[in-house]
Known about the structure:
The complex is a heterodimer. Chain A is of the alpha+beta class. Chain A has helices spanning 2-31, 73-90, 113-127, 154-157; strands at 34-40, 50-54, 62-67, 97-103, 131-134, 138-146. The termini of chain A are far apart. In chain B, 15% of the residues lie in helices and 34% in strands. Chain B contains three helices and 14 strands. Chain B has helices at 2-23, 52-68, 73-84, and strands spanning 46-51, 121-130, 133-134, 139-140, 142-151, 154-166, 171-181, 184-185, 199-209, 216-227, 252-261, 281-284, 323-334, 337-349. The chains are: A alpha+beta, B alpha+beta. Strand 4 (97-103) of chain A pairs antiparallel with strand 13 of chain B, so a sheet runs across the interface.
Amino acid sequence: MSQNRMRFTLAVGLMLPMLAAAPISIVRAQSQREAIIVLTDSLPDSTATATIVREPGPRGRTMVLLRSESADPATLATALVSLTRSRQRLGDLPPNEVVINLHGHRAAASLSVEEQRITSDYVSRLRNAALQDLPGYGRARTLVVPLPPVSVSPADRG
Amino acid sequence: MQPIRVTAFRAAVLFTVVASACDEAPVAPRPSSRQAVRGTPVARRGVEVFAGRRADSVLSLLETGWAQRGHPEYRQTRVAWRKHNGVPATIGDPGLGGPVLAPNADGVIGRDPYAPRPSPKIIAHYEMLHFGYKNQYVNAPDAVEAEVTFVGDQASMMLNNLSIVGKDGSNFSAAGALGGGGGQIVNCPDVIFGDCENRRHNNAVMMLWGAPICDAHGNGSVSYYVTNLNSTVGVTAGPVSGGTTGGPGAAAAGNASIDQTAPACPPPDTTAQKPSVPRDTTNTGDTGGSPTGGAIPPPAAPTGPGLPPVPPPAQPTGPGKTFWCEQVNVYTFVNGVQTLFDSSLECYPET
């Protein structure tokens, strides 16, 4: 009996932390380590090539808005570089809403092999994605992509 | 009881392994990869214009290249001109402070919107043609920068008939708008309550990709045109050469010539070596009667941006580089109203 109780206790002891940790991990993945790439007909800034919106709070969304007519791997790679820089400065949970308007983009030849491969894949999948309702932005083609972890720069933080 | 406990135990272990494996699996682009896809280098040719803060950011990058050619005074002269004319050394944030009231200061608190408006006037202007520099690591093109301080609602700057002719027969010509709009309010200690006569500042830079950078001579002119918006009196037709002060509702115009000679080209085998002492001269004519950059001697102490670290030799020489810019706006809520809290703008080379 005591052996059974020990086994039961061990099983519960292992499961509880996992059950408690799983939702945290999921929430973090949705709000901090993922971005929604949005293909839209127009951007808030008509002169911008891409717009990044980082909503505050633990449930805030991170969105990369690309113009349908000009979305390409170089533009997306530029946006991801800018987003990474912002995450390094402000962390994954910005205290306020951050809107980044990009003008111009990196040269296609400057993309690394990995950047070229991944952004081409993203753009291709994005163009084939189904139209969905994105709260605050209407119907658009969207693609949720994971973001690599970044470390906040102490200099920028201070 | 026994089968249930074994199942629970196995489930816990399995869940642990799966959760651990799924926690971190980033597949997005990583900045660590340095192997680049190289396209066929194509020499860039044409012009590219930046205005306001973007121009400042681009200039800060170009100035490192010009400084390597031995011209840190390009930046010093511009900063000195700005200081002399009450313009901040760095262009301010258009989303905060005075410029948010653009294009007109009629909305300033405490000011009678029906009061007589100050006449448009060009206070000072500054225009320069800088020849570029290129070596194994740096590729800074020729560029024309222009700035103007004025009284009025908006100013436009136009480059006219710029021609750069090389001794080898190469020719480059450019013309077009350098920038325009309300710019930023300057020389006003109290934007909210002070009567600052609607003094403003505009700046721009036009990069000349493909223009000769040595053994060449360039000349042209920059014209300035200042107007008030919502004028009840018609604007006088066309820019007036020589610089004017318009009447109420009229326009003011000025024109300044650019004339500069590039240094001699270094021998082919020394292009990657340390640049020689600069030999070009700058003659900025002024037909408008307003102070220009040429009248402000550069400060003695060097305050340039400094030379960037030399990149590794493996870095290849690429085609002409241009820039992309990011404008970061941070918003917060004040009494339930979303308000611009902070704004910054940075430009980066596209490679």
